[in-house]
């Protein structure tokens, strides 16, 4: 299992990043919870919870890969299960996105909350199966799926934060042109500045 040893640094970095981002996501959600207007529970379960699941999966896979397994079969079977369970979870998230009526999802939401995570989990499951036969090549597929999940999670966390910051604040519109028009109006209505000379 010398191939696994070559990936130690990669999984140390990726797993550490996932763990740190989980903690950061909790801090952000705690700050958002203090707002007077909070989004519905279903929106959080639909858009915020999957981000934690993606980061948690990256952390779990990094821990499983770095564990001292006696052979490839055990880790391969576990990773196949993780991938398949996560694909099922992504299908549940897709159903939740369709069921909620608080927010109208756009293509970017479908891409980052459904398509890319499902693809990453499928790659994880297929690569884990391939791990049983061609471990060196399969580790690249597993590594790719982990990086994809990490970047999807970063995107979704940022998207959640910006959405929660700019919605529900009295007087702030979420459409960019309305924000621009509002700032121009405030500049026009500002009192003129006179020189004291």
Q: Can you walk through the features of this model?
A:
It is a single chain. This protein has helices at 2-6, 8-33, 41-66, 72-99, 107-131, 135-166, 176-188. By secondary structure, the chain is an all-alpha fold. It has one domain (2-188). The radius of gyration is 22 Å and the shape is globular.
Could you give a quick summary of the protein structure above?
79% of the residues lie in helices and 0% in strands. By secondary structure, the protein is mostly helical. It is globular.
Question: Which descriptors would you attach to this protein?
Answer:
single chain; about 200 residues; mainly alpha; 7 helices
**C-alpha end-to-end distance:** 80 Å
* Shape annotation: globular
Task: Return the string of H and E elements.
Answer: HHHHHHH
Sheet having the most strands: none
Tell me the layout of helices and strands.
Elements: H1 2-6, H2 8-33, H3 41-66, H4 72-99, H5 107-131, H6 135-166, H7 176-188
């Amino acid at each position: 299992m010398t191939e696994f040893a070559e990936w130690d640094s990669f999984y140390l970095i990726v797993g550490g990043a996932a763990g740190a981002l989980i903690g950061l996501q909790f801090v952000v959600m705690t700050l958002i919870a203090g707002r007077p207007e909070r989004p519905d529970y279903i929106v959080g379960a639909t858009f915020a919870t999957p981000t934690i699941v993606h980061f948690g999966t990256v952390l779990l896979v990094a821990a499983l890969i770095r564990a001292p397994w006696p052979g490839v079969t055990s880790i391969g079977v576990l990773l196949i299960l993780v991938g398949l369970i996560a694909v099922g979870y992504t299908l549940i998230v897709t159903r939740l996105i369709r069921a909620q009526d608080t927010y109208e999802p756009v293509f970017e939401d479908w891409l980052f909350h459904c398509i890319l995570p499902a693809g990453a989990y499928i790659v994880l499951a297929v690569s884990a199966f391939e791990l049983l036969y061609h471990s060196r090549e399969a580790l690249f597929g597993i590594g790719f799926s982990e990086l994809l999940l990490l970047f999807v999670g970063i995107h979704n966390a940022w998207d959640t934060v910006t959405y929660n910051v700019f919605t529900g604040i009295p007087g702030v519109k979420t459409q960019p042109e309305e924000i621009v028009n509002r700032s121009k109006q405030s500049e026009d209505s500002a009192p003129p500045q006179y020189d004291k000379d």
